[in-house]
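hi! just following up on the protien thing from before. the input was this:
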Amino acid sequence: MKKKIPIVAGFILMSGMMTAQDTLLENYIRMGLESNLALRQKHLSWSKSLEALKEARGMFFPAVSLNARYTVADGGRTISFPVGDILNPVYTTLNALTSGLPPDEQFPAMSIGNEEFQFYRPAEHETKLSLHQPIFSPRVYHGYRIREEMATAAFIDVNIYRRQLVAEIKTAYYNYLKTHYVIELLDQALKVVNENLRVNERLFSNDKVTSDIVDLSRAEVSRVAQQITEAERDQRISATWFNFLLNRPFDAHIEFPGQPEISPVSADMAGALDHALTGREEMDMLDAYTRAHEHTIKMHDLNRLPTLVGAVDYGFQGSEYRFTDEDDFFLGSLVLKWDLFAGRSQQARVTQAEIEKDILSEKRKELEQRISLEVVRAWWDLDAAEKAIESAKMQKQSTASAFRVIEKKYGQGQANLIEFMDARNSMTNAGENLIITLADYMVKYAEFERAAGLYPLDELQNRTTRE
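and the predicted 3d structure came back as:
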């Protein structure tokens, strides 16, 4: 289905959607994309995920640490070394064997006592540099890939909100314009009823009409004034919401153009469906989560294999705190760890990740249907809004024509005040209905544009999360 939306010529409310990118509305959209507070939070979440990615990348590089220890000990366990019990019998035997020799050739008599010393040395230090380098570790590699996909998902989440924000800004802008033109219409109606009151008061002073006519005219003035008050309230509320989206002071002035040239809009349901299923960021986000779970499956599956880490230590040890060639040491190690049995916990983790991937697959199918439903509903809403415009135009033309006739008859005394007020109310209501209908069409188009992913989002930066 493809339609050209008929446009009401010269109606200013249609300006925001169909003019070029340098219109006021586009400027407001850019302002909102730069300063919206909720979008800033999304940016911060993305920045946080990029830092987590850097953290995971750092696991590929060696970790170097400085460790220094100085220990003072007193008491504790003692170690007995029976050196006397071992050597004294030997010396006794040697003395007996050499007793007949000349004195200078005899083995000197001696007695050695047993020794005891503390297990902990009274003072000890160790200062070393330690280097650890993963050589083979599936958890490090796939952990990095998981972080990478999560960072991609966070980047996509920013664009999802940006697209939603564009639609909200447009909707708020159109609602503000709607209240502006309703107030303009009611101001014109107030002039008419004020003039009618002035004429009837003069006629009453000349005994041409009764007091009830003046009272009815005065009541009509009050009713229109109340409508203006309510419309002004709605305008302030819509302006406050619009400025909130742009992170501006609530009372900031909102500009809009004069009489722009309007171009027709094409609404192609089939093309919009295709564009939505390939261009909506939610699909890309689910794909990123799916890739992350694929890496999770591989990580848990490869954890059955051993990990290999290289370790190097260089430092100084001794009972005195000094750094000399006599005190230094060097250690180099290759550390292999292989979990041979863990109660089938690894297989359970793999199965959980596979189930989670299947859940994401089902969510993707559901998302495709939900997006398609959003596009179809938005298209039919837009179609209904288009038809309502034609009906509202006809109502306004008919009521305006009828009011001119009744106004002429009323001036000639051929129609009473009730007929005059009914005709004026019908004309005002029809004009207000046309304004609301046109604004509603603009809002419906903004939603259709969001649902189909038609608004061209600029890149946040000239780089992606993949480095």
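The two ends are 43 Å apart (CA to CA).
The first helix runs from residue 15 to 18.
cheers
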